[in-house]
Amino acid sequence: MKVAFVSQFFDAVLPPDQGSIGIWTYEVARRLAADHETTVIARRPRGGQARLRVEDIQFELLPCAPLRVWTGASHVWTRLRPHVQPLFAQGFYAIEFLTQTTRALRRLAPDVIHLQNFPHYVPAIRRAVPDAAIVLHMHCDWLSQLDYDSMARGVAAADLVIGCSSHVVSAARRRFPQARTQFAVVPNGTPLDRSAPTSINAGDSRVLFVGRISPEKGIHTLLDAWPKVVEAHPAARLDIVGPSVETPREFLIDLSKDQDVLDLSRFYPESGSPRGSYSSALRTMIPSQLAHTVTLSGPMPYERMPEKYAASSIVVNPSLSESFGMSLVEALATGTPVVATRVGGMPEIVEATGGGLLVEKNDPAALADAIVQLLSHPALREELGRRGAQRVAELYPWARIAVLTQDIHKEALSIRQQKGKRAS
Q1: Whole-angstrom distance, CA of residue 94 vs CA of residue 116
Q2: How many helices (H) and strands (E) does the chain have?
Q3: Domains along the chain?
Q4: What would the DSSP string read from start to end of 60-75?
C-alpha cells in the first residue's frame, strides 16, 4: 500500500522542531514505512532539501512563503472582513502549499492520502487524485466551528474522518448527522521507554507543565493557583517546559463559544505588537517572593521528555481548550500522575487510565487543592502513577496507534474501491 501523509502548511514534521501533530505524523509514518511505501508531504525548512529519506520515510518538502506572510495576511483579512470566516478557512489559504501538494500527489499516485486537519482542502485533493482513498484527520474542533457548507463538502469528499479524541468526533457527528462518511477515533500516542526511571521520589514536590506557552493552555490559571500550593508545600517547585508559540487567535479564540476561551483575547496584543506577550504576562504574575519556585525552561527535545516526566512528582495540564492532551499520556507512560481540567479529550484519558485527578477549568482554587492533595499523599501519587502507566502501555503506545492507523487506511481504501464499483 502506498500512503501519503499531508502535513499542515505551518507544521514541522522532522525532529527536533515538531509540535504534537508533527510528532504524530513522524511516529506513525516511521512505523508504517516498515511495511508500506510511505511519503510525508510538508513545508521545506529554510535551507533544507526538497527530498530526503529518513527511517524509510520519503519526505517531499515543499518551498513555501514564509509563515509571517500568511500570518500578516490573516491579520489584514480579519481587520478588513471581521464578520466572515478567517483567512485560514478559505480555500486559497497557503495556496502555494496546496497547489504543490496536489501536484506531488498526482505524481506519487498513492493508494491512501492522510490529511492532517484542513477539511476545506479535501475537495481539491479529491479532484487531483480521484481514485485515492482520503482520510481526514482532525486534531481540533474546526469541523464543528467553521462554515457549515465548506466543512460538509470536506467531510463528503473524504472516505473516512478520524479525530484524536471522542470529544472531537462526537462534535463532528452532531453537526453532520446525515453524513455518509464514516467517523472513527485514533488517539495520539506516547513513547514507552522502559530505560527511563518510573518511580517517584516521595520526598519531592516537583510540579511540571509541558506544552506550548499559549493562552488556551491555562498557564495563568496554574500561576494563580501556585501561591496556595507553596503555602502548603514550601519546597514545591514548578517547571514550565515548552516553546513560546501562541496559537493565532483566529484559529481558536475567535471560533469559540466558550466564554472562558473568548476571555483569553486579553492576552493578544494588537497586530504589530512584539511577540511573546503571553510569556511576558506570565512572568509578571509570579510574586517576587516566589520567583525562585518557578522556572520557565523553554522547549526541550522530544526524546529527552520521558526523563523529564519521570523526574517530576506531578504533571499538570490546566488547559481551557485541549482536543487531546498529549502531555498526560506522556507523563503517565513514566508513572507520573497528572492533574487536568475537564476540557476536550483530557477527561477521556484520565478516566481511561485512572492515572490522575480532574478539576474544572479556570478554577485556580480547585487546581491548587488537587495539586496539594497529590503532593501531600505520596502513596496516592504512587498508586495513580502505577495504574496510569499500566493502562497507557495498553492504550497509547505508538506501535498500537500505528496499527490502528493502518487498519483505518485499509478500511478507507475498501470504501473508495466500493464507491468506484458503484460509480462504474
Answers
A1: 14
A2: 16, 14
A3: 2-189+398-423 (3.40.50.2000), 206-395 (3.40.50.2000)
A4: EEE----HHHHHHHHH
Question: Would you tell me how many other CB atoms lie within 10 Å of the CB of residue 182?
Answer: 14
Strands 57-62 and 51-54, how do they pair?
antiparallel
CA–CA separation, 58 vs 52, rounded Å?
A: 6
> What residue type is 384 in one-letter code?
L
Q: What is the pLDDT of residues 369-413, one digit of tens each?
A: 999 999 999 999 999 999 999 999 999 999 999 999 999 999 999
How far is residue 105's CA from residue 247's CA, in Å, rounded to a whole number? 29
113 vs 240: CA distance, rounded Å: 36
Q: Which three cell numbers stand for residue 338?
A: 497528572
Task: Cell numbers for 152, please give them.
Answer: 460538509
Q: Map residue 373 onto helix, strand or coil.
A: helix
pTM for the full predicted model? 0.93
Cβ of 99: how many Cβ atoms within 10 Å?
Answer: 14
Phi-psi region of 210 (alpha: psi -120 to 50; beta: other; left: phi over 0): beta
CA 45, 46, 52: angle at the middle one, nearest 5? 50
**How far, in Å, CA of 412 to CA of 410, rounded?**
5
Q: How far is CA 189 from CA 268, 357, 394, in A?
A: 31, 20, 11
For 199-262, give the secondary structure using H, E and C: CCCCCCCEEEEECCCCHHHCHHHHHHHHHHHHHHCCCCEEEEECCCCCCCHHHCHHHCCCHHHH
Query: What is the C-alpha separation between 195 and 307, in angstroms, rounded?
Result: 9
Q: What is the pLDDT of residues 346-366, one digit of tens each?
A: 999 999 999 999 999 999 999
